[in-house]
Amino acid sequence: MTKQATRYIFEKIKDALLHSGYEVVLSAKMVVAKGEYVRFREAKGYIAPDELRIYINKNIGINDRVITLVHELLHELYPSWRELRVENQSKQIFKHLTVSQLGFLQFFVMTKSEIDAALKRHQAHSPLC
Ligand SMILES: [Zn+2]
């Protein structure tokens, strides 16, 4: 995947996150999905279009959550893509993210306490504060 293609898809992902009405929900619990129970201990994430929610397993690392978020949004943006393609593309996109693109996506998948801790760390290391 070229840099240009990554940037194009990132813009679509960003637009979907900001304007599609989807809410990202960090969860460690089970949810009811189409009449079946999905166990998050086994799943990294799940998109529920009827609820306009993307569930992300908060027990996995932050970067894994970012890849999962990209993965679930690709399902929404490219419904014709098969699982394997979504899987590969989400990893490719993650690999090519700039620092600020990564920061933007991380914000959606971090808990409040993780964000607070990251901000405190930043403060502690910043000579200006
Ligand atoms: Zn998938």
Structure characterization notes:
This protein is of the alpha+beta class and 129 residues long. It has a single domain (3-121), classed as Zincin-like (2-Layer Sandwich), CATH 3.30.2010. The chain contains five helices and five strands, in the order H-E-E-E-E-E-H-H-H-H. Strands 1-5-4 form a three-stranded mixed beta sheet, with helices on one face. Strands 2-3 form a two-stranded antiparallel ribbon. Strand 2 and strand 3 (36-38) form a beta hairpin. Helix 1 (3-19) packs across helix 2 (62-77) and helix 2 packs across helix 3. The longest helix is centred in the N-terminal third of the chain and has 17 residues, at 3-19. The chain is globular. The N and C termini lie far apart (40 Å). The model has no long low-confidence stretch (mean pLDDT 87). Bound molecules: zinc ion. Zinc ion is lined by residues 71, 75, 83, 86.
Highlighted features:
single chain; 129 residues; alpha+beta; Zincin-like; two-stranded antiparallel ribbon; 56% helix; 16% strand; binds zinc ion
Which oligomerization state do the chains in this entry correspond to?
single chain
What share of residues is helical? 55-70%
Strand content: 15-25%
**Which architecture would the CATH scheme give at its second level?**
2-Layer Sandwich
Order of helices and strands: HEEEEEHHHH
Bound ligands: zinc ion
Largest sheet: 3 strands, mixed
Uncertain runs are none
Question: Using only CA atoms, what is the Rg?
Answer: 15 Å
Our measurement of the CA-to-CA distance between the termini, rounded to an integer number of angstroms, reads: 40 Å
At the fold tier of CATH, the topology name is Zincin-like
- Summed up, the helix count is 5
Q: Briefly, what CATH class?
A: Alpha Beta
The tally of beta strands, per DSSP, is 5
What is the count of distinct domains? 1
